[in-house]
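Hi V.,

You were right to ask for the full record rather than a summary. Here it is.
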Amino acid sequence: MTFNELKKAFEEKLGIKHLSDIARELEVTPQVVSNWKARDEVPYKYIKAFREIILKIENENFETKSGLSGLDFFEGISGAESTLSDNIIKVFQFVRKHVKIITICPIICLVGAFIYLKFFAIPLYYTSAKLLPINESTRSSDIAGIASQFGFNLESQLKDVSISSVEIIPHILQSRTLANSMLDLKFNTKEFGDGYRLIDIIRKNTDKTKIWGKSARQSAANQLLKMFFAKKSRSLPIITLGVYSKEPAFAAELCSAIIENLETLITSVKLSQVKEKKVFIENRIKEILRDLSINEDSLKRFREKNRDIMFSAKLLLEEERLVRDVQVQTQLYITLKSQFEMVRIEEVQKNTIVQVLDPPEVPDKKIRPIPIRIYFFAFVFGITLPFLFIILIKWFNDNKVELLKKN
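Predicted structure:
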């Protein structure tokens, strides 16, 4: 603080104009005050002493009359002798002194929040569906049961490789393969209109004939994966599929399309597996049938050459070996033939992959932004900002002389 500012403050607050009176109030000699005037600079400890004098006078005036004109709430609250009632009084003093800025700032913030919600905020809607994967144990038990009659344990293998299990489906839903398969689907939206591809909606493109490159499709697929999630229940074999969108009807339509493409993708994968299995069984049946024919011919020739073998143990043993080979090949042929028929049935039938327990519905309320929350944070920010600003300005004014010295 400069000396002229101190002199002006003495004159306004205490009505003191002479240097000798200032020296008397601050308990220094007139020569010291003259030195301050010559340098136009006042040491900080005497500025602090001046504030204490003013604060003491203000408190005495408040006790004698109900006036609430204070100096500064934060100057006196750091004093060691301040009581709770004094601090409350100083709060009212501070609020009254800066009532304009404390009132205007929250109003400005609330108006800004209203403008943001009205013109700039992007609404976000959420819809969900609950899916129950169809258990394949019933469909695979027939094959496993037939195979078990001949000593083959296929039940564990059939269960482990099931692509439609509750553990696998969430990963399929979050795969780029599923996302890429949906980019060319057409949807109706309020923003773009009817018959726009999903990739055009994601990339905000109005040209329906545009051909997208590989990098653009990958980027659109990654953005699509962020628009929905799949989560498995901890205790039940149920999958929750949630979809986010700016339009409620589009969110429900997109959720239904994801479920349909999920079934299509799983069906195509299973169909390819069935075809591979069918080809393998066909080739294996041909091999078994050839070996069976060879063994049957060998048994036939043996019996034609050895019609009286009842008294020859060696010939009886040889016949039993040939009969056993024929029986084993026959059992293998019957097993493969049964599996081949099951595969053919599985190839033509259309099974339901997932059961939709709760279908997606058009949401009637947006989940973001929440006006009450926006207005609350705007009001809190509007109340806090002026206090911080006033404290910062006060600190700068009290320390600007020392800051200038350091610089």
